[in-house]
Write a structure and sequence with these properties.
This protein is of the alpha/beta class and 276 residues long. It has nine helices and five strands. The longest helix has 26 residues.
Length: 276
């Protein structure tokens, strides 16, 4: 996982020379133009052979965005080895998509990758998320069977529940308080000292990512653990933000506990689905 330019680094070359003086380090150009293409072709031939031997093939595909804000689509093949009966998984492609993610463009992309790997989509089962564009794309690809990701269905349903007015307001209170504890250096220090005094684990409050329902569970669980220390810290004489002191009532705390229990059931279901 090091950059290929490492072969030109004086420290690295000195290390290799010390370890084995007879070894000649390949140049960066030779690695990129000869070694890697050879490895790719050898691996591709092995994967192609596996795909030919396997009768049923399942595909999964999803889009994602890199930290550089570039959009990619990955296609993965899943099959049972006819000899060992073990599940094999191969990432067939990770390609940048510069066009709009319309159903037509996604369908053409998947058709192109299937043709490249000699896979017949009308004999393949494809699993995707529930985005309307990919659902329509699967219809246009005429796949044997389109399965919508159950984990994504669970995430969508959980998000619906979290948007219920009473729940949304309650979570908004918690987020606002947690954001303050993250933002204020003074409040964070007071909370840390209070945790020590109460002999509680020295943990930081967690703020959730609204698109990930299980992160909301993490936020609630951590807040319930830290609640005594948070209450004490907010009452500290050096903390001037009195508006945060009575943000969460006892009724809110009971509701958070109930919400946590519901979230645990959802997480158990998610783990069961992932295991299956």
């Amino acid at each position: 996982m090091r950059p290929l330019d490492s072969v030109n680094d004086p420290g690295f070359t000195q290390l290799i020379k010390t370890l084995e003086p007879r070894f000649d380090i390949e140049s960066r150009t030779h690695i990129t133009q000869t070694i890697i293409p050879q490895l790719y072709e050898e691996t591709r031939e092995k994967v192609m052979e596996k795909l030919k031997q396997a009768k049923p093939i399942a595909l999964t595909t999803d889009g994602w965005t890199s930290r550089a804000n570039r959009s990619f689509v990955t296609v993965t093949a899943h099959l049972i080895d006819p000899v060992t009966w073990k599940l094999d998984e191969y990432v067939l492609s990770t390609s940048e998509i510069v066009e709009s993610h319309t159903a037509q463009n996604l369908a053409e992309h998947l058709k192109g990758k299937a043709k490249e790997w000699d896979i017949q989509l009308d004999k393949a089962v494809v699993t995707t998320d529930n985005a309307s564009n990919i659902v329509l794309a699967m219809d246009r690809c005429n796949v044997l069977c389109h399965i919508r990701c159950m984990a994504h269905v669970l995430n969508l349903s959980s998000q619906k529940g979290l948007k219920v007015n009473a729940v949304s307001r309650l979570l908004g209170k918690v987020r606002s308080l947690v954001a303050f504890l993250h933002r204020s250096t003074l409040a964070a220090n007071i909370l840390r000292k209070t945790l020590h005094q109460l002999e509680l684990p020295v943990l930081r409050p967690i703020i959730d990512v609204t698109t990930r329902w299980n992160s909301t569970y993490d936020m609630i669980e951590r807040f319930l653990v830290l609640r005594p220390a948070v209450t004490a810290a907010l009452s500290h004489k050096d903390l001037k933000h009195e508006s945060y002191r009575d943000t969460i009532s006892q009724d809110d705390m009971r509701n958070l506990g109930a919400l946590k229990d519901v979230s645990i059931e959802s997480i158990d279901m998610f783990i069961f689905i992932e295991h299956k």
